[in-house]
Amino acid sequence: MRYTAPLTAAQAEQLGNDVGVIIGFAANAISHLRGDTITEQLMRTLASSAAIDVTAARYLKALEEGHRPGDAAAKAGTALIHDWANAVLETRDRLNQQHTGQDKEAAQ
Q1: What are the structural domain ranges in the chain?
Q2: Coil, strand or helix: which one is 3?
Q3: In which band, very low, low, confident or very high, does the pLDDT at 43 lie, cut at 50, 70 and 90?
Q4: Cβ contacts of 80 within 8 Å, gap of 6 or more
Q5: Angstrom distance (rounded) from CA 18 to CA 75
Q6: Which of 46, 65, 101, 105 has its CA 20 to 30 A from that of 4?
Q7: Cβ distance 24 to 77 under 8 Å?
Q8: Helices (H), 1-108
Q9: How open is the CA angle 23-66-25, to the nearest 5 degrees?
């Protein structure tokens, strides 16, 4: 289905379904990479309104660029996985910096 602005009710429903599938595949991929099951926290993160909005925008942009729906979904899903991985790494770095700072304070 092609999308037009503004979305019709049927297009909005289809976009919601498409984005839901993209997020589901991303969650499965992350779970596989981590070697554990999909956690409630992971699903809350990936299903946040910000993640949904960004994923929908990326998917629509890829479709507008002429990508086939499957390729557009793959681009949006891959970007979502990269966003998640970057957030995890940034959080880990921040925690390590805090821990290192606490160790230095304790040593003084």
Answers
A1: 9-107
A2: coil
A3: confident
A4: 22, 23, 26, 46, 51, 54, 55, 58
A5: 13
A6: 46
A7: no
A8: 9-34, 40-46, 49-64, 69-107
A9: 15
- Give the separation between CA 7 and CA 3, rounded to whole angstroms: 7
Tokens of 40: 């409630």
- In terms of Cβ atoms closer than 10 Å to its own Cβ (0-12, 13-18, 19+), residue 101 is exposed
d(CA 19, CA 53): 9
Alpha-carbon distance of 85 to 54, in angstroms, equals: 16
69: its two tokens: 């729906």
Q: For residues 59 and 71, what is the distance between their CA atoms, to the nearest angstrom?
A: 9
Per the structure block, which two tokens stand in for 33?
A: 């990479």
* pLDDT of 94 above 80: yes
Amino acid occupying residue 53: D
pLDDT(35) > 70? yes
**Of 89, 87, 82, 86, nearest in space to 55 by CA:** 82
- Structure tokens, 25: 């595949």
